[in-house]
Fold this protein.
Amino acid sequence: MLTSIDKDHLLFSSAEYNNDIIAFNLMELIRTSPLVLLSNGNSAIVGRTHPSTPFWIWTSNNITDYESQKVCENIINHLRECKSIKIVAKLEFIEYFSRAVIDIAEITFKTDMQSYECNNVIIPKITDVTITHPSDDDLELLAEFYKQYYFECWGKNALDADCIEAAKKNLANPDFLVLYKDNKIVSMVGISKKDDKYARINQVYTSIEHRCKGYAASVVAELCKRALAEGKTPMLYADIANPASNKVYRNIGFKPRGKVSEIWVEIKS
């Protein structure tokens, strides 16, 4: 049975949970301001911050089938109520859950992610580029770059207003860097969240025509160098289905940690 817990529950201090702390870094954010925070007391934690965000489900490596079943029953109750949910968990639990809901729901999206951390960054040798935080004068240039990013990464033609808003947000984020080549923005990266130990990197994107030239590696490495100088360990997630990006991260010093899967689930009509 799952019951409500607080952010200081002993399970968060367990050796097994902390061995998974990179892969479940977002659980650390959830536990500070949860909408839902539940546990069976010894082998599972379920957390969520908002009705629109995924359930993050941490499970121990020795969780029993009975315990997994009870976690699934809880999530299925939410699914029946909401009709659709998103879940992030270890690959093994996602497989178990998928079998449990096969008769009542369908998986509409699935991605497997490798988590990484970087304790020692390797700086690539790239010349004739500039890596820096963009200036306010680059608002329109950055907004246009976001239009490319949204189309390629999310498959949508973003509104100009949305691109400008995203550009303004990151102009105000000191942990956001771009790489300029011939006075054009060709690559970007940002830090979405910092805590006492980690800096979570996201929005790694390079325009198609400038890939395989070391630009993504260079801008990410520079951001990692700055985070490490502040005493923060850079970490990120990479799509396992994208070997090129995984290679980039490993080449600049990132070490693989745990894997998680995200699925979107909808009740069958």
About this structure: The chain has two domains: 3-114+262-267, 121-252.
